[in-house]
Amino acid sequence: MVDAYIKLTDELSAQAHRHPFAAAGLIVALAVILALLVDSIINVSQTGDSFVLYALAGGTVGFVATTLGAVPALVLRKVKQSTTDIMLGFAAGMMLAAAAFSLLLPGIEAGQEITGSPALSSLMVVGGMGLGVLLMFGLDRFMPHEHETAGVHGVGSDRLSRVWLFVMAMALHNLPEGMAVGVGFSQGDMSVGVPLATAIALQDIPEGLAVALALIAIGVKPLASIGIAALGGFLEPVGALIGVGLSSGSLYSYPIGLGIAGGAMLFVVSHEVIPETHRNGNQSLATTGLMAGFALMMVLDTTLG
């Protein structure tokens, strides 16, 4: 046990030396997030906050959607790569629109109400975006995980099975989605939380199926692949609790929290989802799916917001 701890510490140190920017950014992002969480805990303990239940419910809907999306893997052993790329493109489009219309723009509006300045409110949200990007960039460099085509990443990945590496990759996708739902409900604004939770649940369905099929492709039994996809989806309600914690403290924590969630989602879409859909020669189909997902999210934001 001690030897394993020493080896892991050495690997983390070596990775930090190879990627000093990612290490420093992760430390800064985690420090700010911890400070926001502490501020939120103090605030909630003094005033009470029923919106935590709304956030948890929204995150749970995403978890259920991920699980239901994986269920067809019981009968579907393989889906055309072009179909998979369209589905993931659709998910990427919904995430992009959700980040823009349900996180960043409401964050700027909330910041403007607080500061009275469009420039200051924009800078506040952009600062939050930067923290979200630093968080996900650091986790991508240090957290062990594997993508079907991009390969293995992170520290200690050689000591984990491919199944757990896929679970960790799914967790990296689902954590910012859950955070976004939590932030959306943190002020009790249903016009932000409801369309955001709906959009994320819809795009979780194709993601759940894609993960289950990828697990089957490496030898996991269909029923087990559904359970593992569900395990990865469990990070959504966990992320929702973190998200509501980020933005339930001081007045400034809400627009900053929206920026953090938006930046994290944009990173995942740009760094992971879109590249995955463009690796197999299906760029046009994937882009069509992305545009359809973006358009649907705009409609949801208008009708439910």
Main traits of this protein?
mainly alpha, 81% helix, 11 helices, 305 residues, globular
Q: Can you give a write-up of this model?
A:
The protein has 305 residues and is an all-alpha fold. It has one domain. It contains eleven helices and two strands. The chain has helices spanning 2-18, 20-47, 51-70, 81-115, 118-142, 162-185, 190-217, 222-233, 235-246, 253-277, 283-304, and strands at residues 145-147, 151-153. The protein has a two-stranded antiparallel sheet with strand order 1-2. Strand 1 (145-147) and strand 2 (151-153) form a beta hairpin. It is globular. The mean pLDDT is 83.
Largest sheet at a glance? 2 strands, antiparallel
Helix content: over 70%
Low-confidence stretches: none
Structural class from helices and strands?
Answer: mainly alpha
Please give the domain count.
1
The total of helices stands at: 11
- How much is the radius of gyration in Å? 19 Å
In total, how many beta strands?
2
Topology (elements, then pairings):
Layout lengths: L1 H17 L1 H28 L3 H20 L10 H35 L2 H25 L2 E3 L3 E3 L8 H24 L4 H28 L4 H12 L1 H12 L6 H25 L5 H22 L1
Antiparallel strand pairs: 1-2
Helix pairs in contact: 1-2, 2-5, 2-9, 3-6, 3-7, 3-8, 3-9, 4-5, 4-6, 4-7, 4-10, 4-11, 5-10, 6-7, 6-8, 6-9, 6-10, 7-8, 7-11
